[in-house]
Amino acid sequence: MGNDWVDESTDLGAEFTKVIRQYEEEHPEVKITLQGASQQDIKESFQTAALAGGGADIVTMDNSGHAIDLAAMGLLYPLSKLTSAEELIGHYQEGPLNSGKFQGEYHSVPWYMDCCGFYYNTERLKELNLEVPRTWDELADALKVVNDAGYGGIITYQSAYAFYSFFYQNECPVIDTSGEIPEVVIDSEAGKEAWTYICDIIENGGLVESFKEATTWDKVYESFANGEATFLLGGDWCAPGIDKINPDLEYGITTMVEGKTQATVLGGWTWNINANCKNPEAAYDLISYLNSEDGDSILAVEGKDLFLNVGTYRTVMCILPPAEAPEGFAKKTAESAKGWSEDHSVSAAAAARSSAVFFLNAIFPKNFFLIFIRSLRTGFAEGFISASMKR
Predict the structure, then answer these.
(1) Considering the entire predicted model, what is its pTM?
(2) What is d(CA 55, CA 78) in angstroms, rounded to the nearest whole number?
(3) Is residue 251 within 8 Å of residue 224, measured between CB atoms?
(4) Fewer CB within 10 Å, N- or C-terminus of the chain?
(5) What contacts 360, CB < 8 A, 6 or more positions away?
(6) How many CB atoms lie within 10 A of CB 26?
(7) What pLDDT digit, counting tens, does each position of 340-391 carry?
(8) How does pLDDT run across 54-67, given as a tens digit for each residue?
């Protein structure tokens, strides 16, 4: 677990521990020991311990390819031994669920999901007589007005994370997983169009100066909270950071702008069972408990709640400020999640490997496209081949 989840001095840690003790009371034969680690160290720490035949019975993982890597190494317990694929698909959104799917086998279940959204400075838009941008053209036009007025445009984390949304919005899947062997398709016409749009924004001064130092999310929050940036691309985790720096800032949150379609990037955390676990049935029962209504109070501490109005799916969504949340936001986001590519985690893993190359500079010349494609293909191939060999 992340350290925050087991620190009883925090509201989150106290609530999580409370639910764990509640489970122990209802299951007196079970004793649960909580272990914390930083989010950056969880995967490596677990991997080292599991390879040596140990490790925690249950571990949380970032859904951006971490479960896939561990499953390829044989370190996660396959869920087919505990439940059916039909039951899992009937209970969880397919997109987040598939972040733990490797070679047709589920190895994790989602705990909660989030997505990249669009933050905007309400007062500044009012001052400049601007509406909230909803489309690619509207965003480009708004950035010109903002820059002409002497203000900064967009801030986001210095990686490819938020920018991949533009490829998906232009109906470019980045990596096509429909064939037997996944294929990088970012150099398709749709991909080239998205790349050109991103380059145009950046070459026209669309990113704020501090983007060059935005190697942590704290830098992102600071840029938006202190008024340097008018827009921020990020998930629900950004709001507490912004509020801590400038609680008086008036801002709104909405969906990412729309291209040919509306799309965004998903993120979140998953539950995974160690392949070394001696009682996987008990481990899965605890996970199911935490993912049921009995565990809802944990996520509510951080402003997350359950959105149940999507058939039988239980999807954890971030709660947006009611006055700013556009009509149908939760429904649109849930539908986008449900339609996520079956093997999207393969794309996420390859994308993560190419992020460093993607952002060597804060300005992307259009001829840098070939370098980016090569990096993405190399990173994907290495990860895919490595996973196959370890399997």
Answers:
(1) 0.70
(2) 16
(3) yes
(4) C
(5) none
(6) 10
(7) 333 344 444 444 444 434 444 444 445 566 666 666 666 555 554 444 444 4
(8) 999 999 988 777 88
